[in-house]
Amino acid sequence: MIEKINKDWKFEEPQHCSSDQNGVCWIDPAMQQHVGINLHAKKQWASDILKGTASLKEPPNITGIDLVHDGCSVIHPQGCAGRHTMASMALLQPQPTNNLTTVLAASKIPLLPTCMDYQKHPCHDCSASPATSLVTLSPAKPATTIDEDAKDLLSCIQKFQICKGHDLRGAFEVLKTVGLTVELIPDVAVAHMLAVMSAEVESGVVEGVVMAFQKYCREVVAKREWAKRSSCCY
User: Fold this and answer.
1) Whole-angstrom distance between the N-terminal and C-terminal Cα of the chain?
2) Which of 162, 163, 197, 152 is nearest to 178 (CA)?
């Protein structure tokens, strides 16, 4: 899962990220803000994705995005708006809930930046003007990649229906919304898959069907990996 995060959010201009993030940045598409993601944050993010409470499209409001040790923040977002204050993070932190709709909605809330510390922590070379800095920012991750993942997921659901006779098309939208792909589904806990899918499929989903779908996705991924390795040998 961490490899998937590294692949999808590898920053092409690592000089704009602090050295300890190894060039892995989440880019806020609304504010064009670069948020460095360290290993601790990636582990927490990956864990939340596997639990079904977070999306690969953007990190949740977790410690590690503005990680605090002894009252001192050790990660500073690399965008021009400066780091998040603890007050703003407290307002954005989702409250515990068992409601699936609320959990999904909370995972979509963007991190709102502030401008309080821009002078102390500039994100670019001091010689660059604000206009120049905005021009040099890399664009947010193109939607075409996400669309390809969604198409792949829909194709897998349709083929699963043909091969196994179980219609899970009703769960496609919610699976896409939380960022679950064919590669990620086999690693998600069965209980969380049930919670996500049951409310969306008219006939309901039982544990055995979820496990069968995860096995099917795992087989699809294994075949692709085998095909890649085979092509490299020639």
Assistant:
1) 29
2) 197
CA distance 186 to 180: 10
Report the distance separating Cα 165 and Cα 160, nearest Å.
7
Q: What is the DSSP string of 183-218?
A: TTGGGS-HHHHHHHHHTTSTT---HHHHHHHHHHHH
> Are residues 45 and 77 in contact, defined by beta-carbon separation less than 8 angstroms?
no
For residue 43, the one-letter residue type is K
Give domain limits for the chain: 2-136, 143-229
Q: What pTM value is reported for the model? A: 0.42
**Three-state secondary-structure class, residue 55:** strand
The Cα–Cα gap between 223 and 177 comes to 26
Q: Cα separation of 197 and 52, whole Å?
A: 11
Q: Which amino acid is at 196?
A: V
| pLDDT, tens digit (0-9, with 9 covering 90-100), for 189-218 | 999 998 888 877 766 788 999 999 999 999
